[in-house]
Amino acid sequence: MRQKKTLRERIEERISRKRRDDVFLPREFRDLGGEDQVLRVLRGLVREKRLVRLGYGVYGRAVVSRLTGEPLLYSPNGFLGAARQALTKLGVRWEPTDAQQAYNQGRSTQIPVNPVVRVKGRFSRRLRDGNQELVLER
After folding, report:
1. Residue 50: what pLDDT?
2. The whole model's pTM is what?
């Protein structure tokens, strides 16, 4: 007789299946178990360096650094791409800043370094990865 998969195994399986997603919210796993149980599993995955906590209720895919052994956010678009994905999943309307638009349109050669996003509407969470924090423009 086959044993039933644990909640942790089901969450890990779902995370591995979602290749395009770099950011996960606890509500994505609501159908698998209770909120407290899901949060407990996600905290355990953060402790084991499989996920990185980016903010309240926002977790990112992680890889372990070969140099320091610390978990790093794994996102092809970096922290800014992961933060934008998190904002989209949270239902927050956002747009690139003027500096990013000028660079993308070729009007400027200055590359925006700091992760900045213009937010339309209300949003007060802080998203950060290590020493990088998403700056919100209104």
Report:
1. 93
2. 0.87
